[in-house]
Amino acid sequence: MSQEMFEKGLEIRREVVGAEYVDRSLAQADDFSRDFQHLVTEYCWGAAWGRDALTRRDRSLLNLVMLGALNRSHEFKLHLRGALRNGCTKDEIQDTLIQLAIYAGIPAGVEAFRLAREVFDAVEAEEGGAA
Amino acid sequence: MSQEMFEKGLEIRREVVGAEYVDRSLAQADDFSRDFQHLVTEYCWGAAWGRDALTRRDRSLLNLVMLGALNRSHEFKLHLRGALRNGCTKDEIQDTLIQLAIYAGIPAGVEAFRLAREVFDAVEAEEGGAA
Amino acid sequence: MSQEMFEKGLEIRREVVGAEYVDRSLAQADDFSRDFQHLVTEYCWGAAWGRDALTRRDRSLLNLVMLGALNRSHEFKLHLRGALRNGCTKDEIQDTLIQLAIYAGIPAGVEAFRLAREVFDAVEAEEGGAA
Amino acid sequence: MSQEMFEKGLEIRREVVGAEYVDRSLAQADDFSRDFQHLVTEYCWGAAWGRDALTRRDRSLLNLVMLGALNRSHEFKLHLRGALRNGCTKDEIQDTLIQLAIYAGIPAGVEAFRLAREVFDAVEAEEGGAA
Amino acid sequence: MSQEMFEKGLEIRREVVGAEYVDRSLAQADDFSRDFQHLVTEYCWGAAWGRDALTRRDRSLLNLVMLGALNRSHEFKLHLRGALRNGCTKDEIQDTLIQLAIYAGIPAGVEAFRLAREVFDAVEAEEGGAA
Amino acid sequence: MSQEMFEKGLEIRREVVGAEYVDRSLAQADDFSRDFQHLVTEYCWGAAWGRDALTRRDRSLLNLVMLGALNRSHEFKLHLRGALRNGCTKDEIQDTLIQLAIYAGIPAGVEAFRLAREVFDAVEAEEGGAA
């Protein structure tokens, strides 16, 4: 393992997905899941997200259409929150999900809009609750 | 059909995919394929690409990861040329395909890099030939 | 948008999916989801379902195998109810799901039969409750 | 193996895919592929296609959307010829592929229309040559 | 149907998935699902699992990556329990899921590790409760 | 990058896929593809294939079903040669592809058996030519 790449990935991952979530994932890792958690942090977040030619906003939008097309609802919702953290506007997300619906099919779009509403409602409730 | 949306889609489609290719697709359309060609133009290029909240460069990058994840090689190559036309740099495309490889799997990435090389070689040959 | 195609799609959508569900979807639409709801109604229900060469019964069966192969459970259940509304018999649905299991794999079939049982049970309960 | 189911499947398979193709597939089968050829004949063509509640025309249309959604081009073309043999009209196939494009995404539709044109052209050439 | 292959499949299915689960599935089968239950038992468990060149441990690992790649969570969990019954160690399963994550993409891996934890926790609780 | 993991991955990759192919891939890498080639070598071949709990024979069989399910024909053929290099017998590969056909669907199996025949024929021709 490259410690440097891991550290870089850890920093990005905490900023995008939320420090609390990431720290809990790593803390809860046991002998079965620890290597995978490290792999994700180093390669996915360090080696891919850590590259320079795209912004985090770009990567968030790419992830939304990939996770929508691949039908991974749990990760889709996590990355929709990440997209908001990375500064994507609701209008940009709307256009992104319509692009998804056309290219990956209407059912992928229907699912994505349903999940997005769940996330927006939850985020609003949290922000309201925190006020 | 909305004639207005069709016209809007036709203009965008010709600019992104290339006027020659699009005009040939529409001219060659027969009773079997004509309605579909019109649907693609109006719905995909008008109603999706014609929206305002993302740039064409953004949409090109989204399409590359979707077409790579969905394993549609022919369309991938067409849209890689479109990405170049829309001003995406090679560095941006490289980062996009690495993001694809991590999220959709290494074989999706291997295929995408192979197809990209084919397109780059063909484009270079055409530009050389045109000089 | 073509108002005519939207109206045609709306009528078909209400008849197949259920007027209550569709009216609620459209009424609940906000700035984020309204354009997508209109797109689905116009293109999916107007431009595709509104064509003449297949019956609604045919389209329901096609949708069941597509939604099963694409692994979209929520939409699968919605369209299974639509299939019943469109006059598909249980025997036809059974043969359709066995065809799905062979071509898309046994796990797709297992999931489809499980979801079908949920829908049949719910429909029976509703009809019992309405008696 | 059930000899009876195998015989039933063999008959249907020869009628739908063409006797020449099927006989060659079975004759060319070696120790590596023989069991699989028998499994396909018995299980896919006997146990699924041999059922009563759907017509062959119905099954052909189901297969076109499944093979299109699953992105299996070789089998798609084989079953498009089967669809013609089973009496599906070009209009029915057109509506089927448009339904596919909406639910499985525009690139699935573009690919399906391209493959269909190849098959139609080949069939016409053969019929012309046989005249 | 081949009664012999059905019997062979039934025995293997009961040993791998658990006799209680299988007996309940078959007992609950009604006119809609009975043929499918028999098809699964005969072909999937008899004609595939009943072959000699791979061990049950091998087949369990193959199934985990296929079900993970195909995104079938319910079946994945069932077969993870089967893998434990077939003698797969946690270390072997860990390596299998990491192989899945690389080839089918990080989201497939994240989901698989999450489901595995659910299964391990449930198995531990059952064993604790049975002590 | 971890130089140690890269070296480990490079050694395994050359042994499984063939030194000539790998050396050519790395030698031909340009500014666009070099980082990806390194990522594949380090991450896929070092961090996944380099783990201890599964044998190379196990991993080859896992890859065949994943690449078959994911519909990646080019990589499937490459890894079928790798499977032979890793000591998988034809009987094991046959059982593996039948397992694939049942779980990922008959068309995935048909395609896999067709590609396998191509590889076996090519390997035989090479060995004949080398005699």
UniProtKB/TrEMBL annotation, chains A, B, C, D, E, F:
Carboxymuconolactone decarboxylase-like domain ranges (all copies): 35-118
Gene3D superfamilies: AhpD-like
GO molecular function: peroxiredoxin activity
InterPro entries listed in its UniProt record: 4CMD/NDH-1_regulator (IPR052512), AhpD-like (IPR029032), CMD-like (IPR003779)
PANTHER family: 4-CARBOXYMUCONOLACTONE DECARBOXYLASE FAMILY PROTEIN, CARBOXYMUCONOLACTONE DECARBOXYLASE-LIKE DOMAIN-CONTAINING PROTEIN
UniProt name for this protein: Carboxymuconolactone decarboxylase-like domain-containing protein
Organism: Capillimicrobium parvum
The organism's taxonomic lineage, starting at the top: Bacteria, Bacillati, Actinomycetota, Thermoleophilia, Solirubrobacterales
